[in-house]
Amino acid sequence: MKCVPLHKGLKLYAPAKINLTLEILYRRADGYHQLQTVMQELAYSDLLYLEECPAGRLELICDDPFLPSSEENLALRAASLIQQHYAPHRGAHLALYKKIPVAAGLGGGSSDAATVLKGLNDLWQLNLAPASLQELAARLGSDVPFFLCGGTALAQGRGEIIHPLPPFPRAFVLLVSPPGTELSTPLVYRSLKWDKIKSGEKTANFVQLLRDGTGKSSGDPDLLARLLELMVNDLEAGAFALVRELSPLKKMLQEMGLKPLLSGSGPTFFAISNDHEKLRAAGDELTSRGYRVILTSTK
Ligand code: C5P
Question: Is 64 known to be catalytic?
Answer without folding.
Answer: no
